[in-house]
Amino acid sequence: MPKWYTLVQMFLELQNKHPKLPWRQLALQVSEVIGRGIYTARKIIQWELELLEKGYITRSNVGRNTNMVESLLEDKGVELALCTYLTRAGEGNISSLFKV
Question: Taking CA 89 as the corner, what is the angle to CA 84 and CA 94, rounded to the nearest 5 degrees?
Answer without folding.
Answer: 55
